[in-house]
């Protein structure tokens, strides 16, 4: 398919999606969010792809939902279209790992999109924020929930109520991002990490993602039971035999 608002590349077994509305700092208009959802679904269905990276430009990952588009929305329209549920949550439906590589602004819906991904890697230029309060609204794509789980209550309240931005160093200290790289190394480093994951057992990777995500949805005892069931079921896969045989034979495993 051809897209107007995203660029799509593959790097070996890694699928890369670049948000691409430079004139609007990658503001997430409906069309962009629809295209992103369609391509995520396509990569998820493609056996040649093992991991997915979403990135923006040097200046902005995404400066939020498109304010010019939202401005005219009426309450019944917004509810009837289910404009958040229908497309924004497409990231959450992907079974393969989805990695956000964030440089520049990740604000509002841009920060929320990054937080829907499985991990966030940041350039030292990254700036995260939930400035919706300045617009007379609040985060609407999970920001109040995911930011709070990531950085705790006081810092989440600070971000959501004052609309201030958090730089990359603070985001790393606060556990919002897993690692920070110099801006010119962000994408190459993230592609390397994604390539490593993409070469692993696809079923083990999928189960690992599922198990970690379960930690946010359930009690400890239930989460541990879920993990154990997944762990045991992996002993029925050829990947477990291959992975363990490769270790014993002192060679690299081949999971593909
Ligand atoms: C539409 C946007 C935009 C946005 C930037 N632009 N952000 N257009 N929606 N969210 C446009 C500007 O209008 C401008 O277009 C161009 O991008 C460049 O932006 P500038 O403001 O000129 O750049 P700069 O001075 O460098 O400031 C950068 C900025 C600022 C600090 C990121 O653009 C900003 O504050 N943007 C809005 C951030 C925000 O409030 N995000 C939350 C949105 S609400 P023109 O045509 O004028 O050159 C949200 C809710 C999600 O995300 C809920 C789930 C659906």
UniProtKB/TrEMBL annotation:
Pfam families: ECH_1. SUPFAM superfamilies: ClpP/crotonase. InterPro entries: ClpP/crotonase-like_dom_sf (IPR029045), Enoyl-CoA_hyd/isom_CS (IPR018376), Enoyl-CoA_hydra/iso (IPR001753), Enoyl-CoA_hydra_C (IPR014748). It comes from Rhodopila globiformis. It catalyses: a (3S)-3-hydroxyacyl-CoA = a (2E)-enoyl-CoA + H2O; a 4-saturated-(3S)-3-hydroxyacyl-CoA = a (3E)-enoyl-CoA + H2O. This is enoyl-CoA hydratase. Could possibly oxidize fatty acids using specific components. Its EC number is 4.2.1.17. The lineage of its organism: Bacteria, Pseudomonadati, Pseudomonadota, Alphaproteobacteria, Acetobacterales.
């Amino acid at each position: 398919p051809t897209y107007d608002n995203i660029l799509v590349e593959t790097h070996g077994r890694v699928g890369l999606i670049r948000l691409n509305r430079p004139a609007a700092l990658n503001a997430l208009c409906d069309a962009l969010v629809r295209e992103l959802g369609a391509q995520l679904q396509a990569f998820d269905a493609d056996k040649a792809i093992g991991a997915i990276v979403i990135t923006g430009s040097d200046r902005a990952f995404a400066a939020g939902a498109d304010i010019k588009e939202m401005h005219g929305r009426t309450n019944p329209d917004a509810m009837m279209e289910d404009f958040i549920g229908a497309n924004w949550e497409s990231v959450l439906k992907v079974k393969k790992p989805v990695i956000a590589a964030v440089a520049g602004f990740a604000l509002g819906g841009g920060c929320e999109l990054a937080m829907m991904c499985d991990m966030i890697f940041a350039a030292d230029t990254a700036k995260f924020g939930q400035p919706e309060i300045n617009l007379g609204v609040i985060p609407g794509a999970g920001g109040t929930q995911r930011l709070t789980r990531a950085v705790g209550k006081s810092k989440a309240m600070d971000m959501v109520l004052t609309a201030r931005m958090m730089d990359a160093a603070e985001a790393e200290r606060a556990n919002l991002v897993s690692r920070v790289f110099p801006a010119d190394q962000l994408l190459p480093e993230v592609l390397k990490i994604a390539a490593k994951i993409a070469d692993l057992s696809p079923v083990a990777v999928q189960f690992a993602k599922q198990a970690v995500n379960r930690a946010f949805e359930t009690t400890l005892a239930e989460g541990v039971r879920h993990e154990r069931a997944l762990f045991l079921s992996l002993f029925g896969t050829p990947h477990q035999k291959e992975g363990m045989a490769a270790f014993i034979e002192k060679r690299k495993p081949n999971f593909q």
